[in-house]
Amino acid sequence: MQTPLWFWIAFNACVLIVLAIDLFGFQRRAHAPSLREAAVWTCIWIVLSLGFNAFIWHWEGQAKALEFLTGYLVEYSLSVDNIFVFVLVFSSFQVPTEYQHRVLFWGILSALVLRGLMIGLGVAFIQSFHWVLYLFGIFLLFTGAKMLWHQRTVRDFNQSRLVHLARRLLPLVDRYHGPQFSVRLENGRRVLTPLALVLIVIEATDVLFAVDSIPAILGITTDPFIVYTSNICAILGLRSLYFLLAGLVDRVTYLKPALAIVLAFIGVKMLLADIYPVPTVISLCVIASILLAAIGLSSLAKRRSKPILAGIEPTECYPTIKR
């Protein structure tokens, strides 16, 4: 059953309304969200997503609702690993904590468009060329293996090729000017601030993340509406989740292996699609069990790993948490 056009319009309109309320109502003053504020907003985004899931159950049935829930769980768990990269980006550019929310907000707003285009292309390819499904499956197996066997390394994004290229092509100043992405100099020339450069890096990393996450959700369903909405719902909760978990994400010792296994499972599922289509409810149970096992094993681990950003003060790489 094809999703009515008004579903698409209503969903995107609601997303824009909620983002506008967040930007102009709660984030008018630049500040570092407290632990309580981040927890409240994380719960709000999860409740809104589950409420939308209930809406899908009512209008499109149980099967589509299970597909959305499974896709949302996969995308949300993969987004947790994104937090590690955001920590590195903000620490590389020494972004003040009170401006990090602004960068993430506009980065996510742009991601709505970029993810929509990439999802549309992915679905179109699968519907036109069924064999692309097998390529995605092999790619996810490779990505899972790479994630499992290669250790995550600390990277200075300030020295990346993208940043060097941006510095050469764009008019940039060397210091922050509050939460502004651009300022006008005394001679009337408008230039970009380092905050704009951080936004460019965040956008680039989101595209790289989408290369992994979109094939993963396409392994659950090829319904464009379910793929898009579950992806966007997971992205919307990423900002508050960052401020809630940024200082804790590396303590979940078994998160990375769990995500690798999840990607590998979805890859196998895609390769077996024409032989044995794995029911969505089984996929949901398997993925949820893997993630819960990772959390449980991490909490039971007696030994904590060394800090991933040795030599960097916590106030530089993690949000300031107000009690």
SS elements, strand count: 2
The end-to-end distance, rounded to whole angstroms, is: 49 Å
Overall residue-averaged pLDDT value: 79
- Major beta sheet, specifics? 2 strands, antiparallel
Task: List low-confidence stretches.
Answer: 307-323
How big is the Rg?
Answer: 20 Å
- The tally of structural domains comes to 1
Oligomer: single chain
Give the spatial strand order of the biggest sheet: 1-2
Give the overall silhouette: globular
Query: Structural class, from secondary structure content?
Result: mainly alpha
β-sheet strand percentage? under 5%
SS summary, helix count:
12
Percent in helix: 55-70%
Would you list the SSEs in sequence order as H and E?
A: HHHHHHEEHHHHHH
Give your account of this protein's structure.
- By secondary structure, this protein is mainly α.
- It has one domain (14-301).
- It contains twelve helices and two strands; from the N terminus they run H-H-H-H-H-H-E-E-H-H-H-H-H-H.
- It has helices spanning 5-26, 35-60, 62-92, 97-128, 132-149, 161-169, 194-218, 224-236, 238-245, 255-271, 280-300, 314-317; strands spanning 182-184, 190-192.
- It has a two-stranded antiparallel sheet with strand order 1-2.
- Helix 3 runs antiparallel to helix 7 and helix 3 crosses helix 10.
- The radius of gyration is 20 Å and the shape is globular.
- The protein starts with a helix and ends in a 6-residue tail after the last helix.
- The model is unreliable at 307-323 (pLDDT under 50).
